[in-house]
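ok so I'm stuck.
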Amino acid sequence: MSDLTVGSVVAERTVELTRESLVRYAGASGDFNPIHYRDDVAARVGLPGVLAHGMLTMGLAVETIVEWLGDSGRIVEYGVRFTRPVVVDAETGATLTVVAMVGAVDEGVARIDLTVSHDGTVVLGKAQVRVRTAE
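replied:
not stuck anymore, here's the structure
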């Protein structure tokens, strides 16, 4: 991991979300807000449809680099801005695409920039993970 180059892609993946994914996450997290599983409630509050939980999207995004890191304990800091919702269609679900690229390298720490998109739109802004590069 000592030969990191700014701009190089270190990991990428595509994740398929379904309404079942949202129900499972709701059960695990305790977040049972109906905008995450009921079309009528989402429409009533002016949303374009049932939305994936922001923290689910955030967790799936950072998980992309865990295999590359070899140890999730190397993550020093992680933050995002929620910029666009991920609408999960009842029939077709939603596809998230995550690309992890080296944004900066400092002494013993690298910043990995995550580009997280759905339907060609970036849904997490300033998604950055600082990771330890030295053992």
